[in-house]
Amino acid sequence: MNTKKINSKEKRILLVDDDKNIYYSLQMIFEGKPYIVEYVENCSAAMKMIKKVPYDLILMDIMLPRKSGILCIDSVKKVRPEMHIMLLTAVNHVQACREAFLKGACDYLTKPFPPDDLLKRVENIFKSKSKSMAAR
Questions:
Q1: Beta strands in the chain (DSSP E)
Q2: pLDDT tens sequence across 40-77
Q3: What are the residue ranges spanned by the domains of the chain?
Q4: Which of 8, 11, 50, 62 could be 89's S-S partner, Cβ–Cβ 3.0 to 4.6 Å?
């Protein structure tokens, strides 16, 4: 877990995935970008973190131990209803993705994903988040 102080231009991303290799991949993908990635392995740990840290985005695997990413969306939204959540999935399961969108996920990406695709989607989420904040 990385809890270093960030500057105002950096965005904090929480990765929730039971495969630590995804975390290492994201560290390389986001290197040199204004993103700080922190990592936990399950929904329970994610809930502890989002209560303490003001994340800008959660990247979450659908297949998590004990509580699926789909069910974890409900828990996250109870605590942080404005939170943007992008699902990462090894299986392109249409029904699961549909359910995730209904629960409040804003995007999903199938693993393995091209690094540029992930960067573009994350940037688009932050652009739309900035627009919605400006409209208030």
A1: 11-16, 35-40, 57-61, 85-89, 107-110
A2: 999 999 999 999 999 999 999 999 999 999 999 999 99
A3: 11-130
A4: 62
